[in-house]
Write the structure tokens for this entry.
Amino acid sequence: MNRADLTLGPLSERDHAFYGLVWAGTTLAAQVDRELARVHGLPLSWFEVMLWLNGQREPVAASDLGAKTMLSRSQVSRVVDALAGRGLVARSASASDARSVRIELTEEGRAAFAEADATRRAVLAPVFGDRLDDADIAALETVWRKLKEPKPGPAPDGAR
């Protein structure tokens, strides 16, 4: 059997949809990661932290970055160390919590992010943006919104 003959076998529509999401996320992230690293020396994990920082007007706590990104607390710490080493982020002490450090993009970091974001958009255009119309994007937004909703918990005091 050659590689082209491999199949997942019969899948339900739900299983197919799930593995389609996994495939799309993994494939697109890998393409973006390769190009960001090649062109800018920025792995996708670094870009993700910069993406969140770019949207903030004030420095943010590292713990907040860990809660928003798909990275662990230790990964965020390593990424922030690497970005700081390149002068792309700055750390400052928190005015409200002496144990907390706040992080923000430097001007150089904002410029590097803008260039990397243009690369990300260029990589995704032919494999994502140009293939999907406005209705497709709206459908994806509906799906993401539903998947991000908090899981309903049990009713208080056993009430239904």
